[in-house]
Design brief:
The structure holds 2 protein chains of 2 kinds. By secondary structure, chain A is mostly helical. Chain A has one domain. Helix content of chain A is 73%, strand content 1%. In chain A, 61% of the residues are buried. By secondary structure, chain B is mostly helical. Chain B folds into 2 domains: 57 residues, no CATH class; 146 residues, no CATH class. In chain B, helix 3 packs antiparallel against helix 4, helix 4 runs antiparallel to helix 5 and helix 4 packs antiparallel against helix 7. In chain B, 33% of the residues are buried. Classes of the chains: A mainly alpha, B mainly alpha. At the A-B interface, helix 9, helix 11, helix 20, helix 21 and helix 22 of A face helix 1, helix 2, helix 3, helix 4 and helix 7 of B.
């Protein structure tokens, strides 16, 4: 109880609430605007979160995350274009409701569903993450090393079309992580040591500049090809009544519970992602509606049931995805990969030590997540009539601002050193080019991020494991947990390859 | 002659080979004074990664063929302009300063991107850039003068101590920026719009507001040393 009160004390400041409110609004806008992503939003606010105290900084990051996931439903409903893949399943019923003149109810329903999904999954997060984190007590260097391998394999499997390309990008991330001092001996491992030993490169690539470069600068370069495309200005402005009837919402308890369960479970399984959860939730809702035809409308006909199911599920994924992210440091998608990086930059290292040594901070994280969800709902409902105007903001106006923000952010981390700041801007630009070239050639960039995050830990634990085994791999092959993780990695690789082969054959 | 291999995996294959060479040629980083032994050294994992990347990219280079898709010429030009301006920003940030360089970068990109499918006057763009830089620099100097004056008066006791606080000065600066932005929009931008230069006026207004707001947030609230450069006041 005292830990909870201490955690509450870390959050109970006007500044924390103000930054969470700012993060929610920013997240909603980023989620609503096609071309801007939750991942990019998290990367861009890292420099601001770094300047704040830890609890407030984490609150800001989580608010952007929750806001962006929920905000993606706005263009899905009003334009028929999802803000990100999480809102794909909302498009059909959302658009049909808009055409029926029920845009307000669809938007309001989506917000209420997102709030239920977000808060509901947080209960599971609070309950399960300490338990899973406790399991890691049994982990030695060999187990931690193979766990990092699982993380890389998962992110490689979920990002992009080819697992080989994902794994190669993960290896590139590892190579970036190896730049800098050797984790055991401290010897510098940089090219042209005599030239670079007195530069910030001697400490390796800066994580924040890398994240901002990969997700901010590269996004600007990638969007250049879309600037000539005509913007869809056919936005519905007749919002109408916003709140759906309470009786209707209450009657959908079965749909809500099934979507909440699906979203949280899918989110908690690393490598699955919200785009799977939303369709599974919608299918489950279709089944429930088919069995109760008198009580419910059928999803796909422009009804609230078809909006509620995917929206509860996609926000439930946020809480679910944080379970392995916080307890094991394994992300489920690119947004949580960047979020883990951002938490580490803010001094929060996921794993059992976080739960055993800093419970007040963990509670503050849970509380800020709750605040983030509430603010997301409040601001999304309050701004419901502004959305059509937000959707009209052109990419041509936004992209230069994103580029300048992507340069100012890394610079700001250097504090009083101008030269260091310029080095960080250079890193962001270089990583932006790397990310752009990779995306252009259909190579995913999320594995680079995770490789950079996990690379240092992977190497250190690998060498510790080898040392404990007197220079052999005995620590690895005598541990059942290591075997489990290696088997899991193999299963993921094999199942992904088989699944993609099947998809390719089906296309042919 | 048409290129029969994809350039990206081919280049990465070469880079992986070079990385492997670099790793093998660099000195080993085995833990010094290690009585127990068993440390495989800091070259083993980079070597494994280099070999894996070399093999993987080589396989893709052999297996995949170019799809014949090419970027539109206009997009390539936009990319080169954006990259060029970003490099200029990077190299001139220290000597010229954050405010001036950010105005140049943001204004030019706003102007170029928003006039992408309409006739663009380079003369208008350059003059607009110079004008926006001058107006923003003027507003910046005014803002600095006011906050410095408040600080001095608070320090000597002519004003209450709160006037000397960072947050108060930041808030004052934000209010001032908002007022100046409205004034700028109502005068210069309106005049430009009336003369048919709507894109120019919008680019100028966005640049003015964004650069000054970023300056206040990072410099006055978070105390980041944004390179002062030529405007060292």
């Amino acid at each position: 109880m005292s830990d909870f009160l201490l955690g509450l004390g870390l959050v109970a400041h006007l500044a924390t609430f103000a930054w969470c409110a700012f993060g929610s609004v920013l997240g909603i806008i980023l989620g609503a605007l096609p071309g801007l992503t939750a991942t990019m939003g998290i990367a861009l606010v890292i420099p601001i979160s770094y300047q704040l105290d830890t609890a407030t900084g984490i609150g800001l990051l989580l608010s952007v995350y929750c806001g962006a996931v929920s905000g993606a439903s706005i263009p899905a409903i009003l334009l028929g274009i999802p803000g990100n893949p999480n809102a794909i399943a909302t498009v059909e019923d959302g658009q049909l409701m808009t055409k029926k003149g029920l845009a307000g109810q669809a938007l309001g329903g989506a917000v209420i569903a997102s709030l239920i999904g977000g808060l509901g999954s947080e209960i599971f997060l609070i309950f399960f993450s300490p338990l899973i984190a406790k399991m890691t007590l049994a982990f030695g260097p060999a187990e931690k090393c193979t766990l990092a391998l699982v993380g890389i394999v998962i992110i490689a499997a979920v990002s992009g079309k080819s697992i080989l390309k994902g794994l190669l990008m993960g290896a590139l991330g590892f190579v970036f992580a190896f730049v800098g001092p050797d984790p055991m001996s401290g010897t510098l491992r940089i090219p042209f040591v005599e030239i670079f030993r007195k530069t910030p490169l001697a400490n390796g690539f800066d994580m924040t500049s890398t994240l901002i470069g990969l997700y901010g600068v590269s996004q600007v370069f990638s969007e250049l090809a879309n600037l000539r495309k005509k913007q869809n200005t056919n936005v519905c402005t007749n919002i109408g009544k916003v709140f759906p009837p309470f009786k209707k919402v209450a009657s959908m308890w079965q749909i809500i519970l099934s979507s909440l369960g699906i979203g949280t479970l899918i989110g908690a399984i690393p490598g699955t992602g919200a785009s799977i959860a939303v369709f599974m939730a919608r299918n489950a809702a279709t089944g429930i509606c088919s069995r109760n035809k008198k009580k419910f409308d059928q999803p796909g006909t422009g009804c609230l049931e078809g909006v509620f199911a995917p929206e509860v599920a996609n926000n439930a994924v946020t809480g679910g995805a944080l379970i392995p992210a916080l307890s094991l440091g394994i992300p489920g998608d690119s947004a949580t990969a960047v979020l883990i990086g951002a938490l580490m930059i803010n001094g929060v290292t996921p794993g059992y030590s976080l739960f055993s040594q800093n419970m007040p901070l963990v509670y503050s994280l849970f509380i800020t997540l709750c605040v983030a969800n509430v603010f997301m709902a409040v601001f999304q409902l309050a701004g419901v009539r502004l959305y059509p105007k937000i959707l009209l903001i052109s990419q041509r106006v936004l992209m230069p601002i994103v580029l300048v923000l992507s340069f100012v952010g890394p610079y700001a981390l250097a504090g009083s050193s101008v030269s260091k700041g310029i080095y960080y801007v250079g890193t962001a630009l270089f990583m932006g080019l790397v990310g752009y070239i990779a995306k252009k050639n259909e190579y995913p960039i999320a594995p680079i991020v995770l490789g950079l995050i996990l690379g240092g830990m992977f190497e250190e634990q690998f060498r510790r494991g080898m040392k404990l085994g007197a220079g052999t791999l005995s620590r690895f092959y005598t541990s059942p947990i290591c075997w489990l993780f290696i088997a899991l990695s193999v299963v993921i690789v094999v199942s992904t390859v088989i699944k993609r082969k099947k998809t390719e054959n089906a296309k042919v | 002659m048409k290129l029969r291999i994809k350039p990206f995996p081919a280049v990465m294959t070469v880079l992986s080979a070079l990385y492997l060479l670099y790793v093998r040629m660099s000195e080993d980083t085995v833990l010094a004074a290690d009585a127990v032994g068993g440390d495989p050294g800091g070259k083993i994992l980079p070597t494994i990664m280099a070999v894996f990347m070399f093999a993987g990219f080589l396989y893709i280079t052999i297996k995949e063929r170019p799809d014949g898709k090419h970027e539109e010429k206009g997009t390539v030009i936009l990319f080169l302009i954006t990259l060029g301006l970003s490099l200029v920003y990077l190299f001139l940030l220290k000597p010229v300063g954050f405010v001036l360089m950010s105005v140049v970068l943001l204004f030019l990109l706003e102007y170029i991107y928003t006039t992408i499918d309409s006739p663009r006057s380079w003369k208008q763009g350059v003059l607009g850039c110079i004008g926006t830089t001058a107006v923003t620099a003027g507003a910046y100097l005014l803002m600095r003068y006011i906050t410095k004056l408040l600080l001095r008066l608070a320090r000597v006791g002519s004003l209450p101590g709160v006037f000397g606080s960072t947050v108060f000065n930041g808030v004052i600066s934000l209010v001032l920026i908002a007022a100046l932005t409205i004034l700028f929009a109502a005068t210069v931008c309106k005049a430009l719009k009336n003369k048919g230069c709507e894109r120019l006026s919008k680019s100028a207004l966005i640049t003015f507001a964004v650069v000054l707001a970023l300056y206040v947030i990072f410099k006055q609230f978070f105390n980041v040393n944004l390179a002062p450069g030529l405007l060292n006041y």
